[in-house]
Every structure is written in structure tokens, then in C-alpha cells.
Amino acid sequence: MDDLLREFLTESAEHLDTVDAELVKFEQDPNNQVILRNIFRLVHTIKGTCGFLGLPRLETLAHAAENLMGRFRDGFPVSSESVTLILATLDRLKAILADLEAGGTEPAGSDADLIEALDAMSQMPAEEAAPAPAPAALVVQTLERELKPGEVSLEELERAFMEAEGPDDLAPLPPLPSIPDSPAIVDAAAPAPAATSAETKAAAEKAPESKPVEMTAEAAEAAQKNRTIRVNVETLEHLMTMVSELVLTRNQLLEIARRHEDTSYKVPLQRLSHVTAELQDGVMKTRMQPIGNAWQKLPRVVRDLSAELSKGIELVMVGAETELDRQVLELIKDPLTHMVRNSADHGIESTAERIKAGKPAGGTIRLSAYHEGGTISIEIADDGRGLDLAAIRRKAVDRGIASQADVERMSDSDVAKFIFHAGFSTAQVVTSVSGRGVGMDVVKTNIESIGGMIDIATQRGAGTTFTIKIPLTLAIISALIVEAGGQRYAVPQIAVRELVRIEAEGTNRVERINGAPVMRLRERLLPITSLSSLMEGNMGATGADTPVSGFVVVAQVGRQRFGILVDEVFHTEEIVVKPMSSKLRHIPLFAGNTILGDGAVVLIVDPNGIARKVGQGAASGDASDQAEEAGEAALDKATLLVFKGGGSFKAVPLSLVTRIEEIDAGKIEWLAGRPLIQYRGKLMPLVPADPAIEIRSQGSQALVVFSDGDRAMGLVVDEIVDIVEDHLNVEIVADRSDLIGSAVLRGRATDIVDVSHFLPLAYDDWARGPRAAKAKNPTLLLVDDSAFFRNLLTPVLKAAGYEVATAASAEDALRVLKSDADISVVVADLEMPGRSGFDLVAAMRKGGGRLGNLPVIALSGQIGPESITKARALSISDLVAKFDRSGLVAALGELDTAPLDQAA
Amino acid sequence: MQAANTNAAEASLSGERDYVTVFVGDAMFGLAIERVHDVFMPSGITSVPLAPREIVGLINLRGRVVTALCLRRRLGLPDREAGATCMAIGLEQGSETFALVTDGVGEVLKLGPETCEPVPINLDARWRDLASAVHRLDGRLLVILDITALLAFGEALAA
Lengths: 904, 159
What we know:
The structure holds 2 protein chains of 2 kinds.
Chain A: H1 3-28, H2 33-53, H3 56-73, H4 80-103, H5 112-123, H6 133-139, H7 142-145, H8 156-165, H9 183-189, H10 191-198, H11 202-225, H12 233-259, H13 266-286, E1 288-290, H14 292-295, H15 298-308, E2 313-318, E3 323-325, H16 326-347, H17 351-356, E4 363-372, E5 375-382, H18 389-398, H19 404-409, H20 412-417, H21 440-449, E6 453-459, E7 463-471, E8 476-484, E9 487-492, E10 496-502, E11 510-513, E12 516-521, E13 524-530, H22 531-535, E14 550-557, E15 560-566, E16 568-576, E17 590-595, E18 601-605, H23 607-620, H24 625-631, E19 636-645, E20 648-653, E21 659-664, E22 669-671, E23 674-679, E24 682-688, E25 700-708, E26 711-717, E27 719-728, E28 731-732, E29 739-745, E30 748-753, H25 755-762, E31 779-783, H26 787-799, E32 803-807, H27 810-819, E33 823-829, H28 837-847, H29 849-853, E34 856-860, H30 865-873, E35 878-881, H31 885-897
Parallel strand pairs in A: 2-4, 9-18, 13-15, 20-30, 24-26, 31-32, 31-33, 33-34, 34-35
Antiparallel strand pairs in A: 1-3, 4-5, 5-7, 6-7, 8-9, 8-16, 10-14, 11-12, 12-13, 14-15, 17-18, 19-20, 19-27, 21-25, 22-23, 23-24, 25-26, 28-29, 29-30
Chain B: H1 2-11, E1 17-24, E2 27-32, E3 36-40, E4 55-61, E5 64-70, H2 71-74, E6 87-93, E7 96-102, E8 104-111, E9 116-117, H3 125-130, E10 131-136, E11 141-145, H4 147-151, H5 155-158
Parallel strand pairs in B: 2-11, 5-7
Antiparallel strand pairs in B: 1-2, 1-8, 3-6, 4-5, 6-7, 9-10, 10-11
């Protein structure tokens, strides 16, 4: 393929895109001559170049389209059908161009269908058309052209030009009467009328004469166009590399200059330094492009859909000039188009539906972009019906992603997130044209792959808003340079929340929970991972005995916060991200590498990779028994209520939940800044399950109600997702008081909520319970082999007014009982590996004394006559089913009424 | 280097090819000159934690980050003593540049088919995979390394 053809292809593709967008604008504003002129010029250029390059098929087709557009200029009414037809022609042109690009030659085939349709439309006698017969005459047969037009529009000249370059069935030109307000043009055109009336040949000569005329008309615009040139991306990349190297060299020079007293070259060096900096800036800028480039195709997409679905849709674009990196732009182009398509297709209701709903007949899709810190936010908002949650629910069930029961309990925003589920992608449809959610998983993946985030907000009947946040550029990021294990690393600044200096002793020090390093940060525990041990493949656990000093880089990835322990922190630096070598790409800890100002290569740490390692570290922990016991998993089947709050899945044991409610958010009242709701004749306080949850002011609000005696509390959640019965593998997290830990439920990472954290938020005195008056709460020993159940029951028991000690085995329990004389009651699980609960109680009774009489409440999964008999024999006060929380509390209450020493 | 390249083109007519010789310990190896882009002293190597053993780190080669690969480790030989001098050969594969770290670089040899022998079958399997031929020289043997094979490691890991 020669260069000329290649250039033609690039240029034509661009022109066609512009024409697409312009046509849509023109359809809405048919009187705008500027737009029409622009379209006309572009199509004309394509046609002209095709003729020049010997591409007859393209030329003929473009010519036919041009004819029709010529009629528009003459006042032929712009109808939706005609625009559709032209757009279809443009699509055909694009298809041919694509083949041309692939094959190097114009593909065979006929465009007779389109040409006929275009001609037919051009010839349509449009009475309403202003300059009556002239335009019709123009575009058709020789015979008709000989009719002299009665009147001539201002655009007549250009039309003449158009004729001149048309295919060779060209006819005599129409006469060109003088145009009063443009003497220059008249001069140039003057010979034309004479020639025209004389012979056909004149046409050939006509063209060059007319050309300058058009040029004058377009001169200003052309000049504008010439200010930009096309540069190969590789050239730019190379330039970028060279500038980086220049910067390095300059830095070296500056370093040398600092050491020398000789000032004679300091001034030119200073100058060199400035120029280099500016050059670097300039080169960086070449990578930036307005986001409007990615939006260019969208008006056309929306228009086509609007026609296809026969509903009025307006696309409003705000902030098209917002600049971002070329590379990012390329990556978001398709996802954006897809999402706008989806909004038009499914977001916006049919006109009838809209009118019925009392909305304006035409829907609006609003696309906006703006800078926000180092990121760019893009919003795609429609004022349509909101997501069809019912359909999504059905689909989720059909696809087997969730059960019927599950989806019914799920709240809206959770259901909305289903559209990002891969199961929805291949789908045949939620609604008619293409499924909302088709490919949304790809959209999400694409956006996340460049470090972006996507969020949905949807309101029934009011519309859906997708918000995408992406980094401005992938090429240049601000990074914190740190040192660990004698080597420097770059940590992307975007993940860094703060820096904390760590000393071996003092308030800011690293403490250890069974070897796992943590740090107190403003009343929270922050899990710490040491960068140098991570780099040694140690999952971030630092040597247990060495006192740790240095700095902790507090990082946040998604909702996960953790500290990265480093030896030294230097400075922040704008770095150019270079991709990792293909041999090293599999290492999850690195996002790339870069060359620093001093010429050294450093690795860029990937906070996502570290976040994952931190999680794994918590699971694998130290090899010691206790570590396994504390950090790992207890395999227990539990029934949990899963809900969504603050962007993540959370769960509470169903046994603790009194009720699940959907309330009308309008009924929420605020008293002294605290939200309350009238619930069953009483006021019930509401507490958000996560600080990130906003209590809704309209629509419905999902609540999880907990009650204790006559008190009730509503935990505000975004939506109820599911009830899951599953084996739990809980990983304990230390840094959040509102969570017990996290577990994987149905393949989703889910936080297990510690209800005891919320109860005091609702009632200040709840934690102290009704026994608050007592000087000291009785101490209870909870014996259960499962860490999960211990964590689960501890808050319940605390809420019931006990100090709680725990033990993981019968042996453990006996040890604790012997050492702690305060223990006044034992709650023991009967089914434990090794020595069972019965064994424990038997041992206690056998020992006699205090332990012999200590009241015991036994927990059991199965309560049969046999176990009851056995329990009686051992003077067990009560036997309670394992999940029967209120039963346990009641049993404790009964104990309480009896004097403790006689309880047995 | 350029002169050598031209020679290579001319020589190929007579079946002779140019090889850059490199040393690792006592052994001498030949690398097809067409694939060699640079010979330089590696300095300021940034080691990459958790990387495959063969990779010694990353080097800034005139503004490009190149992945340095240790020929000794690739051949399964012990590491050179600390502080010993080394030389690197710049190789391109695909769009990436690699630096092959060797003990030293020797002269460019023009070798014809008459001294060429197939790789002996009793060679260590690792070497057999990396070698494409052996040339009989005066007093010593020159093992020709297959650069593509040399750079084909860690693929399974990367996948």
C-alpha cells in the first residue's frame, strides 16, 4: 500500500467520523449553514481524493451522497429518513475503506441499492424546497440540466464545483449568475455561464477555476486545520524517551556543577535546565488528548438508536475538552460507547412510557467529564426508567447466579451490580434490542484494568448514573520513592494516604499479634506488611523479634487499608511508567518500572498486588499452632444474612437478626441528629452498617432489625442480598472494630459484621445492658473450638451483661477456670474435637470445689433425649441449641435469678 | 559494529557467518552478530525480587530499561565471584531489549560451514537446548548459542 493511499485512509476515516457527528447536529438544526458547509466539504474531499486515487466505487457512492446533501443546501427539507440514508451511505463508505485498508484494493461489489435510494431522494420533487426546480435539475440527467434554473442560491458556486468533479456522466454546468455580496467569486466564476451554455467540455476547465473560489470561502477554516499535523505515535514515544535521557544528563551536569566552583558555565547550564524542563512538559502534552475524541462517535450512535427505537434521545456532552492520556483514551473509548448505547437502548423509556410517567417526551443522556485530583471522572447519566431490576433479578436466577430467594432479598443497588456480572454478558436480553448489561463485565474489567473504578446509582423512574473514575494518564504518575532492604521502590501516590514514622519504642511502634505486625493508627489497628520481607517472598511478616523502625506508608486499595513498612522515605517524583519485561510480568507486586532522575532503574510497586498479599498473609500467618487457630478458619456451617453496605458485601449471623425490613425512607425522622423510625409503636434508632452508607431520604430503605428484650435497633444497609448457609472460613481482621473478620461466601469476599459494635451506637447503655447498675459484671467462660462462634457469641454475651473469657478447647477451659477465679458461669459447646463439652463438665465436676458447682450452659447442634439425660447427670443447668441466641440469653437470665452458688 | 554487520551480509554469500564471541568461565560461546545490538559494561543493576533466577535485574541502557539475563545462570553454572568484571550484550527480541551478562566479550569471528559440527548428543540437556552448533577452532571449541532459545525462559511463569 503506498503512502498516499495510507494517508487517504486515515484521513477519510477521520472525516467520516466528523461527518457522522456533524450530520446528527445538522438534523437537529437544519438551518445551520456552517454545519452543512462543513459536511459538504468533507464528503467532497473524500470524493475528490477517491477520483484522484482511482477508486471508482467509493467515488460514485460519495458522489450520490453529495448530491443529496447538495439539495439540502438548496433548501430541500432535511428529513430524518434522508439523514438516515446518508448515514447508511457513510457506513458503506467506511466498510469499503476498511476492506481497502485490509486488502489494498477496493473490494468488488455494488452499491446500486444505496445509490438508487440516494438518487430517488435527490429527485424527489420537494415542493417545500425553497429554490424550487434548480436543485432537482442539478443532480439528475443531462436533459434536465439544460433547463436553466430560475434562481440561484449563494451556494451555487460550490455546487458548480461539485458538478465539475463529479463522475463522467457530467453534464453542462448550470449558469452562474453574479453573486452580489462576493465580487471575488463573481470574477472567478464569470466565464462559467458562457461556457456552460456552450458545451460539455467546459466542465473540465471549470473545476480548476472554481477551486480557488471554494478555497476563499473555506480559507479561514483551512488555516485552522493546518495548525495540526499528524505525527506517528512511535515518533512521539521515541521523543519521550530521548527527553527522559536529556533530563538524566542534565541532572548529572547539575550534580557536577554543584561540586565545582567555576561559575562560568552555571548560567548556560541553568538555561539548559529550564529548556529541558519545558521540553519535557511539552512532550508530555503531546500525549494528552481531549476526551471529546473518544466521544466523537457517540452522537451518531445515539441518533441511530433514537431512530431505530423510535424514541427521542438527546445526548448532552459536557467537558469534552477535558484532557487525558492518549493511551487511556483508547482504552475507555469502547467501554464508553457501550455504556452510552446501553443508556439509550435501555435506560431511556419509550416516548409513550415517558409521557405516561409525566416526563418530557424526549430522554436525555448526559455525558460529562471533569478533572478531579489526579483522576478524571466521567459520568453517563440518563433520565430514563432506571435499571429494570425485576428483569435483572429474573435473569440472575435464570443464569444461576443467585437463587430466587436470594434475589428477592437483595436490595436494588446490589441487583444493579449484577449487570457487571460476567453471566450477564453473553446474554440475550433483558429488554428488546440488546441486553442492558451485555458486555458490562467487559466494561468493568477494562476500566479496572487501567486502575479505574465504576459505580452505578439508579433510581426507579428517575434514571441511572454510571460514574467512572480513571487516572489521567498511565504513563506519568506521581510516586513516592521509598527504600526497603537496601533498594529503592516507587509507590504510586494515588494509593498513599499518609506516612507515619515508626520507632522501636514509643507510641508509634509496630506491635504484633501472634507475629502479625499491626500498628495503632488513630484508635484503629492497621495491618502492616514489610516491603522488604514481601520482596523476599515472605508474605509481609517481619522477623518476629527485631524491633522495627522506619516508616509506614499507609495505603488504601479499594476499601482495604494497610501499612507498608519501609526503611526510608525520600520524596515524591513524577515518574514515567515503563511496562515490565514480559519475563517479569507475572510478579504481582510490580506495576512497572521507571528511570529516576539520577538514572537508576526502580521498580514501581503495585498497591493492588500488595493488598492481595496482605490478605494472604493474614490467612497463612505464622506456622505455629496458635496462629492457625486464631487466623485461620473454623469449618462451621452457619446461616448468615448477607447484605450490602458501603460498597462491600457484609454478613451477620441470621440467628442474631430479629427481622428484615424495607421501610419508606420518607418516614425516617431525625431527633438530635440521630435517625429514628417509628417501629411497632416505638421509636427505633437507626445505625448505618458502614460509615459510607447514606441513609436515604426517599424511596425505600433496607433495614436489618436487631432486638433485645424491648429494645430494637435498625441497622441501615444498602440492600439485603442473600441468606447463605455455608461453611465459614473466617479471617479475622484486626483493624476494624465493626467487623469480626471476612469470609468468602458464595465466591464473594464478605465482611462479617460485629453486631456488638453497633448496639452501643443505638443505645448508649446497651453494651452495659440492663445490669449496668451492678458494680461488676459476672465473668463468663465461653468454650468453643470454633473461632468464628467465639467471635459470634462474645458480643451477644457481652450485650447480655457478662465479661467474657474464651477458650478453644476443654483443656484450655480447665486451665482458664483454674487460673481465673472470677468466672461464675461456663457456656460450653458440647461438640468439640478431642475432649468434648461433656468431658469438660465431667472433669469440672470430678474436681469438686468451686468448679464442681459452677453453673454450665451447654450448646449443642443436636439436642436429643440422650444428651439431655447426660446433661442432667452432669448438673448442666441448661442445654441450648447452638444457634438459639435468645434461648442462651434466657438460660443465662434464669441462672442469674438463682443464687450462683446454688445454681446447680 | 556496523562494519561487522556489513561483513556479515557479504559473508553470508559464501556460507560464512560472523559471530560475536563471549566467555563464561573457560568456555567460549558464539552469538550470531545480526542479533547483537550493543556491547556494554553493565552498571547500576536494579535487582527484581521474586524474578526468575536467570534474571539479574534491570539496567538503564540509554534511557531504555533492559532486562539483564545472566548467561551463567542460564547455563546452570555457578555465579561469578563478587567484584569480577562482566560485560553485557544487548539483544532484541520482539519489542524488548535484553542484556546478556557474560564474563567477557572477545573478538568477532568469521566462520564457515567447514568447521561447523552438530551439537554432540552427550551434552548436558540444558546446554543442548541452547546450543545450535559447535565450531572446531584451533585449540578450542566454540559453542554457538541459539539466542531465541536463550531468551525463551520463564514463559510458563509469565503465562
